[in-house]
Design brief:
This protein is α+β, with helices and mostly antiparallel strands. The two termini are 44 Å apart. It folds into 3 domains: 34-139, OB fold (Dihydrolipoamide Acetyltransferase, E2P); 166-208 and 306-556, 2-Layer Sandwich (BirA Bifunctional Protein, domain 2), CATH 3.30.930.10; 210-290, no CATH class. Strands 6-12-13-18-17-16-15-14 form an 8-stranded mixed sheet, sandwiched between helices. It has a 5-stranded mixed barrel with strand order 1-2-3-5-4. A 3-stranded antiparallel sheet has the order 7-11-8, with no helix packed on it. Helices cover 37% and strands 20% of the residues. Its EC number is 6.1.1.22. This is asparagine--tRNA ligase. Residues 326-559 form the Aminoacyl-transfer RNA synthetases class-II family profile domain.
């Protein structure tokens, strides 16, 4: 490829190709991607005459010409568009090919279809290589329109639908964009632990990780199968030890041979070992171990309480305070019994941390990152976005373009509350009361971004009472240097802050919010030794997908949703 082409995004590279080029096979599969045929600017017409092998799942199929041939719409997940395939009856039993969900691999020649048809290219099959059959009477994902709620009951098959496949590609694109953005800006990707012993949010709604229950159940089964020794058993073992002690004494007194004494001592040691085992086993009690009436976590796997992380922020700060610019991107967990369309028990967070930076830098980074992701989808994923616009949210592409192109509004929390109070005076009704000191509800956030400004809004300098202990206390001693990025459709997309770098201040804040100091001593060390001004934020990855696609329920934008009562697969 020419040097100038290398700088182009893949879609533009495709447009710059010689359209008579041979279609390339997938690097690790003996087939061509359907996207490499139908995703070309000419819809694949320039490939007419090429012989290819294609594979995919039948979206729709129908026999034609009184059963002499069949049309199949084939999709392999590489793009939203299907490849039309024509199979003659002499090549296969057509009834086994046409059912929705059937997997077929075929060899054939690409041909331009007759004028007036929607397709730019079709595949005339010369050989049916393989068929993964489907019983249409039992297949739970027919070609009829299915609700997203219905598909949640068939997680293992729902990716075969157009919607979930499109969301998967959009999610993939946003993940790629995330890494590209931070790598381009010299951030280091750090893997933070999923198992943690600290609560970043101080909310207490964490999943506990323990082996005490399984170990207790194992012990109970063992004690039933092999009951602990009785006092009589232990007394008998003590008696044996006493007898063995006496026997050794007698042999020594009688000046017996060294070998006789050695053998007797060995029997004594064996008796002592047996007694020790019996005494230890007699102490085993069914149930979870306790000490002073409380669960004894020193007996647990990590010798202390452990949880699934709610955030990688605190841990990734240790690297920010050493290598400057870092980010983590991984799953986080919250044991919150919420059934809303905006909450999951397992969700993904993108969390950068920037050393030598303040709240202004934090807001600049957040805005640039959101714009970058919007542009990425418009450049790299437009076919899927067009599908979402057609099927779910007509305004989703315009929303991406708007966010990508205009500056975000920036207002203080106090100004935001004043605007909301002004709206109330003007007749606007909110379910949640508006007053200084409240944590803004989703309805407040969406009013600001969708109604008042009709663009993204960054609200900063929140009351310290509604924010976490690690956020930097402002000079007014009432607010902290926190910021939230609000966008149309979802409200809060990003939450961040300048971190409190002053040792005495953050120590006092930890105590003020009622957290123990001991688990955070390592965090305080970052302020004791070479403290540095730094900031960061967290973006809820699934919320970004909701914003981009217009999908209403967060359970539909993560491959395997976990929420109260459900953890399928």
């Amino acid at each position: 490829m020419a040097e100038t082409d290398q700088a182009l995004p893949p879609s533009d590279q495709l447009a710059a190709m010689n359209l008579t080029d041979t279609v390339e096979k997938h690097a690790f599969s003996d087939r061509v991607l359907i996207r490499s045929i139908v995703g070309r600017p000419d819809g694949g017409a320039g490939l007419a005459g090429q012989r290819v092998r294609a594979g995919g799942w039948v979206k729709t199929g129908r026999e034609q010409g009184k059963g002499t041939f069949a049309f199949l719409e084939l999709n392999d997940g590489s793009c939203p568009a299907n490849l039309q395939v024509i199979v003659d009856a002499g090549l296969a039993v057509l009834s086994k090919l046409v059912a929705t969900g059937t997997c077929v691999v075929v060899d054939g020649i690409l041909k331009v279809p007759p004028e007036g048809t929607r397709q730019k290219i079709e595949l005339r099959v010369e050989k049916v290589v393989s068929v993964g059959e489907v019983d249409p009477a039992k297949y739970p994902i027919p070609k009829t329109k299915l609700t997203l709620e219905f598909l949640r009951d068939h997680l293992h098959l729902r990716a075969r639908t157009n919607t979930i496949a499109a969301i998967a590609r959009i999610r993939n694109a946003l993940a790629f964009a995330t890494h590209s953005f931070f790598q381009e800006h010299n951030f280091l990707y750090v893997h933070t632990p999923i198992l943690t012993t600290s609560d970043c949010e101080g909310a207490g709604e964490m999943f506990q990780v323990t082996t005490l229950i399984s170990e207790s159940e194992k012990l109970e089964k063992e004690l039933i199968k092999n009951p602990p020794p009785s006092e009589v058993d232990i007394e008998a073992a003590r008696q044996v030890v006493s007898e063995r002690v006496e026997a050794v004494k007698q042999l020594k007194a009688a000046k017996a041979s060294k070998s006789e004494i050695t053998a007797s001592v060995a029997e004594l040691n064996k008796a002592k070992e047996n007694l020790s085992k019996l005494e230890e086993r007699s102490k085993l009690k069914p149930g979870i171990p306790k000490k002073d009436g409380k669960i004894d976590y020193t007996q647990d796997f990590f010798a202390r309480q452990a949880f699934l992380t709610v955030s990688g922020q605190l841990q990734v700060e240790t690297y920010a305070c050493a290598v400057s610019n870092v980010y983590t991107f991984g799953p986080t967990f919250r044991a919150e019994h919420s059934h809303t369309s905006r909450h999951l028990a397992e969700f993904w967070m993108v969390e950068p941390e920037i050393a030598f930076a303040d709240l202004q830098d934090d807001m600049n980074c957040a805005e640039a990152y959101v714009k970058y992701m919007c542009n990425w989808l418009l450049d790299k994923c437009l076919d899927d976005m067009l599908f979402m616009a057609k099927s779910y949210d007509k305004g989703c592409i315009d929303r991406l373009r708007m966010v990508a192109s205009i500056p975000f509004v920036r207002i203080s929390y106090t100004e935001a509350v004043e605007l909301l109070e002004e709206a109330v005076r003007g007749g606007k009704k909110f379910e949640n009361e508006v007053k200084w000191g409240i944590d803004l509800a989703s309805e407040h956030e969406r009013y600001l971004t969708e109604v008042k400004f009709q663009k993204p809004v960054i609200v900063y300098n929140y009351p310290k009472g509604i924010k976490a202990f690690y956020m930097r206390l402002n000079d007014d001693l009432k607010t902290v240097a926190a910021m939230d990025v609000l966008v149309p459709k979802v409200g809060e997309l990003i939450g961040g802050s300048q971190r409190e770098e002053r040792y005495e201040v953050i120590r006092e804040r930890i105590l003020e919010v009622g957290l123990p100091l001991e688990p955070y001593e390592w965090y305080l060390d970052l302020r004791r030794y070479g403290t540095v001004k730094h900031c960061g934020f967290g973006l809820g990855f699934e919320r970004m997908i909701l914003f981009a696609t217009g999908i209403e329920n967060i359970r539909d934008v993560i491959p395997f949703p976990r929420y109260p009562g459900r953890a399928d697969l």
